[in-house]
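Below: protein 1.
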Amino acid sequence: MTSTFKYIDYLAVKNLKQGDVKAFDDLFNKYSPRLYNFSVKYLKSAEEAEEVVQEVFLYIWDKREGLKPDNSFNAYIFTIAYNIIKKYFIKKSKDNAYKDDLIYTFLQLENNLDQTIDYKFLLEKVELIINSLPNRRKEIFIKRKYDGLSVRQIADELGISPNTVENQLASAQKQILNELHKEKLAGLIFFMLFISI
């Protein structure tokens, strides 16, 4: 049964590989609604989800000669969509370099293409937790994680010892993890990676 499913698009992909426009249209009509639903769950935007679908099939058409009919076309196109979405998030978050790392790391870890994560909600939640840190702790955490300063640089800038900086960072990490545990949020491992010192 698995092999039957795997090769279900064999003829269409084989014909598409040879430039058959009808085969392309058939595959587009079959998969575009599913790709759209997949994309809109991540992007939360109908317009952007439609752009992903268009980009996937433009890529398929451009690379048609390299298609492998024996492989799962379903897995192939969803992997392409997944990578486009990943690039979209990275591009969108360029104004906040730390979010760039957050999203990229999370998307690398997320192996289940069907699992829906509300990234915007998670990012907003972690920012709320960071903003609730005591002022000095928050300042140190932001300098380390947002601005990318080393422990030594932060210590010199604030006129405190490196040990104090490390202690404050450890306390911030513990507080954020505790809050995330309370919320039982999806993507907790992702945030653990993000806030690890």
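Below: protein 2.
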Amino acid sequence: KKADEAIRDHVVEMNNARYNRVRQAAKYLVSKFPKNGKVMTQCYAETILGMMLLECREQGNNIKLFCPETRPYFQGAKFTSTVCYQMGFDTTLITDNMPAFVMAKEKIDVFTCAADAISCDGYVFNKVGTSQIAICANHFNIPVYVSGAPDIGHPTFDTVTIEMRDPSFSLQAMGVRTAIEGIKGYYPAFDMTPPELITGIVTNKGIFEPTKLNDYFKDNQPYELTV
């Protein structure tokens, strides 16, 4: 076999393995959704979002989705909500300061997101705004499920650095300045959600309690959250 064909086959095999892992995680996640329930997201990652929706569709679970816009890049508006709608689900876009009101008014059943990093001591790092939504979810007794695997390179939360981006982006919306000259901006790209606000970390091996993530590395047996 030619070298280029071998490389191509290897890449396809690795990609399919990743898809299979994500699909398994999606099965665990969807098992926590009530039938035709209301799900709030936060700047959801593309693969797990698609697999979650595919799993819902195949199970006949017609969830309704509420997606915050996630300023200043508006990924929730441009990407997450688009994927949800185009896959055939009832999708509502809300602004970043609406989650608490929407949770109470619309009776949200589950809050779920992915993560840019998960430290082994159970802290989740995701698009800024995730932490405040998790706080609101806890106030309203709404379960919080985060999809992703713990990062063995981050044994504790203090090994993760929050990226600070160009503060000028907080002074505009889609290229249109919204603040007068002289006002300073502030733009942390991510925030940290502590384990006490998280119901479970959803992985390809099962759903783990945030304080027991080291179990993820022990073996390949499924671990199912009992709460």
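The mean pLDDT is 92.
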